[in-house]
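Q: Focus on the shape:
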Amino acid sequence: MGPIFVTRYGSRWMPEHLTAIDGTTSIGCGRCFKVCSREVMHLHGIDDTGEILGICDGQDDDFDGELNRMMRVVDHAGRCIGYGACGRVCPKNCQTHVAADKVAA
């Protein structure tokens, strides 16, 4: 049996950690990023073939003309505390969340 998580009111609760965002489904709205206080995901540049070019820091990133679009990438999954606000605000249900007792340490 895995760990038992309990709210401060004594209710059992299982955190579900964000592990991935599906770039083919995501519309890049940024709602997930806005509600995440843990900086689990960041905006990355994507080329025509779907390859991730790198993080966009907001300073005219065009990756030598290779930039096709931008999307959120889970680049710090270990920071996720599993409260799930990002999944609740996602209009496309493009995120993968895994229960805390199933996430590899």
